[in-house]
Specification:
By secondary structure, this protein is α/β, with parallel strands linked by helices. It has four domains: 2-202, Dna Ligase, domain 1, CATH 3.30.1490; 208-293, D-amino Acid Aminotransferase, Chain A, domain 1; 299-394, Glucose Oxidase, domain 1; 412-638, no CATH class. It has 26 helices and 24 strands. Strand 15 and strand 16 form a beta hairpin. Helix 3 packs antiparallel against helix 4 and helix 23 runs parallel beside helix 24. The longest helix has 25 residues, at 622-646.
Length: 651
């Protein structure tokens, strides 16, 4: 552990103290207003851990590397255990003495460093001797090139000397909060390869604070962005094209002019325009509080059309647009599941915006809400269409809404039955009695609740492919202690049996003599995508195994754009298959990628195949799936009507 004053720029190393401390020390050396303070490196070495505590700490970090990215409950357990370790350790005595010395030095002018401690105490008596304790996290030996902001930790403000040690411990615990662990997992960051430092600076009386950048993170265009929060937490934002600054300069306040001038000089001092300058105003002076690397949105994120329901965090479900007034740490868990994030009282330069861009999520802040004249409260529960910078609210009485309600002559129950009639539930032969009871409770909802059972790969079992399940079990299976009695009690109309991976090539399945290279994009995936369901020569049923395809794509590290391409290929294939009078079964995967494929193929599907253990999750999104189908029909009808209008003789 080392403690280094921000006044000693030559001693502050980015590899041990972090870029935040290094750049603040640089700016301080160049004469910018930066609050006095010091940085502590390798903070873990401050604490008097026992060997058993170290082993437990390392064990929990190792466990983190083995869990899934969305296993939040396990992350909470790991966080709880690590928090317990820190609750039972203290900062070493010798380190305490050194910390308090540097703490006191913050409040003494450097010109009187040589005087006695008694005189220093006398001089500092009556001053506001409080500090802000700030986290600094970065990759070991790779801080300058780190692409992650680690914008998830909160500082401890207005900390007095008696509270300093506890505040440092609290900051350390925050490095292993469930939110921090979730952030690490989301970005595949290995916690054991992170440096943890702590920055302590003098607390300043702040009248306003904000952020500045010379570039728009959504467009990478040169634009002055000034975001200001005043004491009542209201947000004022200005976006000024660089070449138009002289036209608006006279309309700016003296503070705004000073911030823009000083922040521009900061960009020159650190030799980069791809940064965010965080500033505060204290006693009518502009102080620099942080320098952050500016994260840009990629073209795919900005240009992607988003059509989804907007909901606040308490009503949010996967696939929604997250729409709230301002950012709360709990929202971090929802970010990966959101189609887009709308935060009315946050700016593009906010930590909330930075986190969204890192996750390749479309972020719309204060300016986007103002230009589209929307309020977070008003769009909660409404359907939005986001196209580039334009946000359209689907009106209740729109043509589309009327179309979606065309089935109002039928009861909701009838509509639900029509939807569920497309569902096949995949059930293993050894289904236990609890699962059977659960499925029987749902049986009335599913008109075609089929049991799907694999035939042995050796092909010894030869049966018709659709028949009464009781006959099937009584004639071919006999008694089976592992599940037969439970299966017999299940109310199922019919039984489909399919051979496991007895698939043929696409040209065989379509009954054509085309070569497989006609679908070159499927090469290597054909065994995963299409399976012969009923007849080896002229199959009547074709199954698209969405999960297997997405697993294969994940192994190839292909982007979301490739998923869209695959979805379009599926669409072309399904159209061709339907023309050949085939029945299509689409395997349902309840992820964003799975929904992308489903959206393109759903209208052509005869059935959706759902694993019985996924029924609860499936039923939560049934309205979304119905909307996909309804929207497809609506777009088709609209195109047909427009085509007729275009061909109508005006006479």
């Amino acid at each position: 552990m080392a403690i280094i004053s921000l006044n000693d720029y030559s001693l502050v190393s980015a590899s041990s103290a972090g870029t935040k401390a290094k750049k603040l020390a640089l700016l301080k050396a160049k004469g910018f207003e930066v609050a006095d303070g010091f940085v502590m490196t390798d903070v873990l070495s401050l604490f008097n851990f026992t060997k058993a505590q170290i082993d437990e700490f390392v064990s929990n970090l190792s466990l983190l590397e083995t869990i899934k990215k969305d296993d939040i409950e396990t992350m909470k357990e790991i966080s709880k255990k690590i928090t317990g370790i820190f609750e039972n350790v203290n900062i070493k005595g010798t380190s305490q003495d050194e910390l308090f010395k540097y703490y006191e030095d913050i409040f003494i002018d450097r010109q009187i460093d040589g005087v006695s401690d008694q005189i220093k105490d006398l001089i500092s008596t009556g001053r506001d001797k409080s500090v802000i304790v700030r986290p600094t996290v970065f990759y070991k030996n790779n801080e300058e090139n780190s692409k992650y902001s680690f914008s998830i930790f909160s500082s401890k403000d207005k900390i007095w000397k008696s509270q300093l040690l506890d505040a440092i411990k609290q900051v350390m615990v925050s490095y292993f909060s469930p939110y921090a662990l979730f952030y690490y997992q989301t970005h595949s960051i290995i916690a054991k390869e992170i440096n943890f430092s702590v920055l302590v600076q003098q607390h300043l009386l702040v009248s306003s604070r904000g952020s500045f950048s010379l570039k728009n993170p959504d467009m990478e265009e040169e634009k002055i962005i000034l975001e200001t929060k005043i004491q009542d937490d209201s947000l004022n934002i200005k976006h000024i094209p660089v070449d138009s600054f002289s036209d608006v300069e006279n309309s700016l306040s003296p503070d705004e002019k000073s911030i823009i001038l000083i922040s521009t000089k900061v960009c020159s001092a650190v030799q980069s325009h791809d940064i965010i300058v965080d500033w505060i105003i204290s006693k009518e002076k502009v102080h620099i509080s942080n320098i952050r690397k500016l994260t840009f949105s990629d073209d795919e994120t900005i240009n992607r059309q988003i059509d989804a329901m907007a909901n606040c965090s308490r009503n949010f479900t996967e696939g929604n647009i997250l729409a709230c007034k301002k950012f709360g740490t709990d929202m971090l868990f929802l970010y990966p599941k959101a189609q887009a994030i709308i935060l009315q009282n946050e700016g593009l330069l906010s930590y909330a915006g930075e986190l969204a861009r890192e996750m390749k999520k479309r972020f719309i802040g204060r300016m986007g809400c103002l230009s589209n004249k929307i309020e977070a409260d008003e769009i909660d529960g409404k359907k939005l269409l986001i196209e580039n910078s334009k946000i359209t609210i689907e009106q209740e009485n729109s043509i589309e809404e009327n179309f979606f309600n065309m089935k109002s002559i039928a009861s909701d129950h009838e509509t639900q039955e029509n939807f569920f009639s497309k569902v096949l539930i995949k059930i293993p032969f050894n289904l236990d009695s609890n699962a059977v009871e659960c499925l029987n409770e749902r049986a009335d909802r599913y008109e075609n609740m089929f049991l799907i059972e694999k035939i042995a790969a050796d092909g010894n079992s030869q049966h018709n492919y659709s028949f009464n399940y009781k006959d099937y079990y009584s004639n071919t299976q006999g008694d089976n202690e592992n599940g037969h009695d439970a299966i017999r009690d299940l109310r199922i109309k019919e039984l489909f049996v399919y051979k496991d991976n007895d698939a043929t090539k696409i040209n065989q399945m379509l009954g054509e003599n085309l070569q497989i290279n006609h679908y070159a994009q499927f090469n290597g995936l054909k065994e995963l995508i299409l399976f012969d369901f009923t007849n080896e020569i002229t199959p009547q049923y074709i199954f698209i195994n969405t999960k297997a395809v997405l697993d294969e794509l994940a192994n190839e590290n292909l982007s979301g754009q490739n998923v869209i391409k695959i979805a379009n290929l599926f669409k072309k294939f399904t159209i061709k298959a339907k023309a050949a009078n085939k029945k299509l079964i689409i395997g349902l995967v309840l992820t964003e990628e799975g929904k992308c494929i489903l959206k393109e193929t759903l209208f052509y599907a005869d059935y959706l195949l759902v694993n019985h253990e996924n029924l609860d999750e499936f039923e939560k999104i049934q309205n979304i799936i119905k909307k996909y189908e309804q929207r497809f029909v609506f777009e088709y009808i609209k195109k047909q009507c427009m085509g007729r209008e275009a061909n109508t003789d005006p006479k």
